[in-house]
What does this fold into?
Amino acid sequence: MIKADFIRSLGLGRLANFEGTIRGAEIDTRKLQPGTAFFALKGENSDGHNYIRQALQNGAALCVVTEDWAVKNPFLAPLWIVPDPQIALQKLSEKWRLSFSIPILAITGTNGKTTTRAMCAAILQTTYHLHTTTGNFNNQLGLPLTLLNLEADHEFSLIEMGTNHFGEIAGLCNMAHPDSGLITNVAHGHLEFFGDLEGVARAKSELFTALPPVGTAFINADDPLIARMPVPCRKISYGFAQSDVDFRGKITGFSDNGCARININSKIEIRLLTPGKVAALNALAASAVALHYGVDEKALTTVLATFQSVNQRFVQFNLGPYHIINDAYNANPDSTIAALETFRKIKTPGRRIFIMGDMLELGQYSSAGHSRVGQAVATAAIDRFYSVGKMTAHATSAAVSAGMRGVYHFDTKSDLLAALKTDLKNGDTLLVKGSRGSHMEEIIEGLKV
It folds into this structure.
C-alpha cells in the first residue's frame, strides 16, 4: 500500500483531497481495479484526462493529472497534480522499487525473452513469492505499472524489458534498478532503428552496463556478441557449444514432437514439453538462473517437463483434420529460420505447410532478410509455402530460385485463405508466422470459418 506521505516525498507536484493509500496503478480505465491510482496519460489517439470521471466511478483511489486540467476542472476529487503524469508514473515506480531489498532480475533479448522469463517465473515461484511482468508490460509504460505491483511479502522480482530504440533499456533500468540481468540473444530484430547486429548488441548491452558491481550477469556463451559484452559484475555463463561455462547443456535427443531432452553439467536430465532447439536454450538459461538462486533440482526438472509454450509462440493444437502451429506473435529472420528448423524436427502425418507474413522493422535488411528466409524454406522439407504481404514476395522468389515448388504469394489474407482452403488435405500441419503488425493469427481464425 502506497501512502500519501510516500507520494509527497517525491517532491513532485501536489496532492489534493487525498490522505489515503493506493494499491498499484493503471493507465486504462477498462482494466482499473478499485483502490488503484489512475494516471491520465496523453497518447497519439487519446487523452486519459477524458476518462477521469470514469476512473473515479470504477473505484480509482487517486487520479494523476496535469495542472492545466486541474485548473479547468475544479471539482472535488482525490488528485495528484503534476507537470507530466507519465514522468510521475516513472518516478513513483522507481522510488517504490527502491523501498524493496529483494533480488531483481531483468531479462531482455531479441528472441525468447518472454518465454525465458515465463520459464524462470514458473521455476522460481516454487521457491519464492514471486513478483513478475505479466503479458507484454515490458516497456516505458508497462514496466512502471509492473513495479508498482510490488508488495511487502514479495521475495523476488523478475522483470522483462523490451526495446526498439537506443537508450530504452537504460531508461528501464533507471526505474527497475536490477541487480542481475540476462540477455537471451542478439538477432536481426528492429534493424530499422538499430542499423545492424552490432547496433542491436549495443542496445541490449545497456542492461549489463546498468548492473551494480555486486550484481550478476547471466551470459549466453553461445552468442558471440553477448559473450564479448563488457560486464561490470560477476558473470555466470551457460551454453551448449562452449565447454568452459558454469552451466553446460547437451541436447541428447528429440521426441517425435520435436521436444529436446537436455543434460546440464552431466547430472541434471530434463525432458521438455516445448519443441525446438531454441526452447532448449531458453530452458538452459532459466535453469542457470534457478540453480544460481537455490531452486531445488527436482523442482526445476518437474516444472520444465510440464511447461507449455507462451501464447502465439509455437503453440500447437488441432483444428478439425489439421494440426496448427501458431507462432504468429512476432518474427524476424533468425526466429523464423529457427521455427522452420523446429518444424522439420516434428513428425507429421501429412504435409508441412508454411504460411508467412511480412517481417517488419528490418530497415535496409528487409529484402535480404526475407530472401534469406525463402532460401531456408526451400531446404526445410516444406511441402507448401504460402505468403502474404509486400516483403514476403522476396521470400517466395528466393524459394523458387532455390528450386522449391508449391510456392504461392498473395497480396491479401482473404486471397491466401481462399487458395489455402482448396488445397488443404487431412493430416496437414500448418506453421503460421509473421511480425506482430502482420496479424497472421487472422489466417488461423479464417480457417475456423
